[in-house]
Amino acid sequence: MENNQVVTGVPEHIGIIMDGNRRWARQNCLPVNQGHSEGVKVLKKIIRKCSTIGIKYLTVFTLSTDNRNRDKKEMQNLMTLINLNLMAIAEFKKENIQVKIVGDRENLSDSLLHTIDKVEKETADCTGLILSFAFNYGGQDEITSAFNSILSDNSIDEVSVELFEKHLFSGYLPEPELVIRTGGEKRTSGFLLWKAAYSELFFCNKFWPDFSENDLIEMIDEYNHRERNRGQ
Amino acid sequence: MENFDRRNIPKHIGIIMDGNRKWAKENNKNISEGYLQGQQVFDEVCLYCLEMRIPYLTTFAFSLENLKRSNDEIRALLDLLFERLRDKQWFIENNIRVYFAGVISLFTKDEQRILQDLSTSTSKCDGLSVTIALNYDGHEEIVNALNQAIKQRGLIKVVTKDTIERYLYTSHLPPLDLIIRTANIQRLTRFLLWKSSYAECVFFEKYWPDFKKEDFLKAINDYEKRERRYGK
């Protein structure tokens, strides 16, 4: 029964801001690296859970509130790469997971572009969960980039919401029903700024390495509860 | 009030005032009374902002989505709202400058004149800037900005975030620091989409008509605590 756990009202798309690896490490008197590797372990569990219960899209954003005054994007990129490197392409394929990178591809080094290209191509035929890593991503940057791409196309005279969305990095994604942030911060930090504008927000005090499959299921239950209330 | 560190006080607060109707129902009052009570609380919040020298307050009065509700109810709500906005004197006496953000052209000519009149009459006030989001939708705001930009395509070489800012209904506003939402609804519903990227969210279970000064102070305090944590 446990393995075939039926979760009713499964959302199509969940977004997660994974925050708290470093603070978790510090709290447990461990090196920062261990915070990250613990974080990857949890991510793997959550990915598998999402697959099992039939979620179609999972989008993850690696953020660190510790680095507020340093170059945010650089830190974010670094940590996303750590995640990706620790998860082998073979593993994604075995689990039938399609991997996508959502973010700005301009100004990335050739070797980075090559890595991104490789993981996307090799998992392109997978038909299970679509797992997106926000990489080199900023919500306002995403909208700015769409403006530039539309303005440079002289054949476009007028834009609708639908057309605009097609020019976003996240254009291929449906709107996430839930956005979760761990680590205790209560803001969305521009994550899927356009697409998550209507999402139910779940702020969780646990650091990301302490987040569990049970926490996820509880949030989905709570989401369904909120949905029912909204209908009244 | 002396307990607050001025450096960490938010400069721009956004409020999504939910629960007027539910409050009316639960208190056996008609819906108009709920909205009137809500207006009363809004006035009080303006005064708290003045007292604490918070320069910008933005409220979500009426979304484009609200137009989908039954006509009678919308009419009742809008009538109350416009009646309130006719009272210029209250705003002038309290030194409050009023702006509007949203698709104002959807209102009748008479209604538009009321809004115009209030903005003009308060344009010299400099105690507090109140922006009232009317017929507002964060996606529409962005797409409208882009359509304005398309008309001036020849003048724009590269779009930056600043370029986009200039075309927004909310171009006069700094980023949102703090978002308050009542009635236990935990999503942003496209409120000030572009400006809300890094806003701290504080949600309240109580309905808007029950919102008190102590609740307002609690929200400021939550924000201030966060600032103190990261200011170091």
From TrEMBL, chain A:
<dbReference type="GO" id="GO:0000287">
    <property type="term" value="F:magnesium ion binding"/>
</dbReference>
<comment type="function">
    <text>Catalyzes the condensation of isopentenyl diphosphate (IPP) with allylic pyrophosphates generating different type of terpenoids.</text>
</comment>
<feature type="binding site">
    <location>
        <position position="36"/>
    </location>
    <ligand>
        <name>substrate</name>
    </ligand>
</feature>
<feature type="binding site">
    <location>
        <begin position="64"/>
        <end position="66"/>
    </location>
    <ligand>
        <name>substrate</name>
    </ligand>
</feature>
<feature type="binding site">
    <location>
        <position position="200"/>
    </location>
    <ligand>
        <name>Mg(2+)</name>
    </ligand>
</feature>
<keyword id="KW-0808">Transferase</keyword>
<dbReference type="GO" id="GO:0045547">
    <property type="term" value="F:ditrans,polycis-polyprenyl diphosphate synthase [(2E,6E)-farnesyl diphosphate specific] activity"/>
</dbReference>
<dbReference type="InterPro" id="IPR018520">
    <property type="entry name" value="UPP_synth-like_CS"/>
</dbReference>
<dbReference type="InterPro" id="IPR001441">
    <property type="entry name" value="UPP_synth-like"/>
</dbReference>
<feature type="binding site">
    <location>
        <begin position="20"/>
        <end position="23"/>
    </location>
    <ligand>
        <name>substrate</name>
    </ligand>
</feature>
<feature type="active site" description="Proton acceptor">
    <location>
        <position position="67"/>
    </location>
</feature>
<feature type="active site">
    <location>
        <position position="19"/>
    </location>
</feature>
<dbReference type="InterPro" id="IPR036424">
    <property type="entry name" value="UPP_synth-like_sf"/>
</dbReference>
<keyword id="KW-0460">Magnesium</keyword>
<feature type="binding site">
    <location>
        <begin position="187"/>
        <end position="189"/>
    </location>
    <ligand>
        <name>substrate</name>
    </ligand>
</feature>
<comment type="subunit">
    <text>Homodimer.</text>
</comment>
<feature type="binding site">
    <location>
        <position position="19"/>
    </location>
    <ligand>
        <name>Mg(2+)</name>
    </ligand>
</feature>
<keyword id="KW-0479">Metal-binding</keyword>
<dbReference type="Pfam" id="PF01255">
    <property type="entry name" value="Prenyltransf"/>
</dbReference>
<feature type="binding site">
    <location>
        <position position="181"/>
    </location>
    <ligand>
        <name>substrate</name>
    </ligand>
</feature>
<comment type="similarity">
    <text>Belongs to the UPP synthase family.</text>
</comment>
<feature type="binding site">
    <location>
        <position position="24"/>
    </location>
    <ligand>
        <name>substrate</name>
    </ligand>
</feature>
<protein>
    <recommendedName>
        <fullName>Isoprenyl transferase</fullName>
        <ecNumber>2.5.1.-</ecNumber>
    </recommendedName>
</protein>
<feature type="binding site">
    <location>
        <position position="70"/>
    </location>
    <ligand>
        <name>substrate</name>
    </ligand>
</feature>
<dbReference type="GO" id="GO:0016094">
    <property type="term" value="P:polyprenol biosynthetic process"/>
</dbReference>
